[in-house]
Design goal:
Elements (H helix, E strand, L loop, with lengths): L1 E2 L8 E6 L11 E7 L4 E4 L4 E15 L2 E7 L9 E4 L5 E5 L4 E8 L8 E3 L5 E5 L10 E7 L9 E8 L4 E2 L4 E2 L4 E8 L4 E6 L2 E6 L3 E4 L7 E3 L4 E9 L10 E2 L18
Antiparallel strand pairs: 1-19, 2-3, 3-9, 4-8, 5-6, 5-7, 5-8, 5-9, 7-10, 11-12, 12-13, 13-21, 14-20, 15-22, 16-19, 16-21, 17-18, 17-20
Length: 263
C-alpha cells in the first residue's frame, strides 16, 4: 500500500501508521517529525523507540544526558539514530533551522541499554557488484538487526540507489511486516516497485506498507537517486534473519549467467 505526501511535512509530528490506530497491522508507530530551531517534542510512550535523523541537527535528552546529532544529507552521510527501551522517556529538540526525524515505535518488554549509533557503528556496504551487469549496485546502511541489536524488536537501515538501479532483486519476501519511506534527488524523481502482483509508483516522501509474504523488488528512474529507509518488525518467535527468494529468478546472480540470446 502506498501512502503519498502531497507537500513537504509540516512542523511537528506527522503520523503515518499507529499501533493503536491507522494501519495497526504493521505493528509499529511510524511517522516523520519536523523541527525548527528550539522546537521540542517529548516522547514518553511505553514502547521501544527509534529516532532516525534524516537531515539537520537535533539534541536528544534522556536519562539525564543530552546528546547532539548532525546530518547534512541522507544521500551522502551515514545513519545517525537513537534506540531507547520503553522505560526511558526522551525529548527531541531542534537545533538547525530545519530538521527531519523518522520516529518508529513498537512493543518490546526487554529493558536494554539506550544506544546512539552513528559512524563506524553503522554497517555500510556496496551490494550488487559483479552480477546482473551491475543493475543492482547500491549503497546499503544497516543500523539494527538481530546480530547487531539482539534485544530490539526493530530491524532498520537505508538504501541509497544509484539512478536506474534495482534493489530487492532477485525478488524476495518475508513473514515480517516492513515499511519503506522514500526520498528522491532531485525531488521530482520517481521509481517503481513490484508489490506482490501490483505495480506501485514511488515519489518523494512516499511511504509503502509491505504486507507479509509479498515480494517487493524496485527500481529508480534513470537520472534520479532514490533513497529509502526500511524498517522490519520482528515477530515473536520469528525474527527476520534472511529473505525468502523466488527461485525462478535466482539464476540471474549465478556466475556466467547469460542475459542476452545468441543471434
Amino acid at each position: 500500500m502506498r501512502i503519498t505526501q502531497d507537500k513537504d511535512f509540516e512542523l511537528g509530528y506527522t503520523e503515518i501508521t499507529a499501533l493503536d490506530g491507522i494501519h495497526s497491522e504493521m505493528m509499529m508507530d511510524f511517522g516523520v517529525l519536523r523541527l525548527n530551531t528550539g522546537m521540542e517534542f517529548a516522547d514518553d510512550k511505553q514502547l521501544e523507540r527509534v529516532f532516525v535523523l534524516l537531515y539537520g541537527e537535533i539534541e536528544v535528552t534522556y536519562d539525564g544526558q543530552t546528546i547532539k546529532g548532525k546530518r547534512e544529507t541522507y544521500t551522502n552521510d551515514t545513519i545517525w539514530c537513537v534506540n531507547l527501551p520503553k522505560n526511558v522517556p526522551a525529548v527531541i529538540r531542534g537545533v538547525a533551522e530545519d530538521s527531519q526525524v523518522v520516529i518508529v515505535r513498537t512493543e518490546n518488554d526487554k529493558l536494554f541499554a539506550p544506544a546512539v549509533r552513528w559512524g563506524d557503528q553503522i554497517v555500510e556496504e556496496v551490494r550488487g557488484k559483479g552480477c546482473m551487469n551491475e543493475a543492482g549496485t547500491r549503497i546499503v546502511r544497516t543500523a539494527q538487526d538481530k546480530r547487531l541489536t539482539p534485544d530490539s524488536n526493530l530491524m532498520f537501515g537505508e538504501d541509497m540507489h544509484y539512478p536506474g538501479k534495482w534493489s530487492g532483486f532477485p525478488s524476495h519476501s518475508h513473514a515480517q511486516p516492513e515499511i519503506y519511506f522514500y526520498k528522491f534527488y532531485p525531488e521530482n524523481g520517481f521509481g517503481l516497485l513490484r508489490l506482490g502482483d501490483e505495480g506501485v509508483l514511488l515519489e518523494h516522501n512516499d511511504t509503502v506498507l509491505i504486507q507479509p509474504d509479498k515480494v517487493h523488488p524496485q527500481v529508480a528512474a534513470p537520472g534520479y537517486a532514490m533513497y529509502y529507509l526500511w524498517v522490519i518488525r520482528h515477530l515473536d518467535g520469528n525474527p527476520y534473519l534472511s529473505p525468502d527468494f523466488e527461485e525462478q529468478h535466482l539464476w540471474v546472480e549465478q556466475p556466467g549467467a547469460k542475459y542476452w540470446p545468441d543471434c
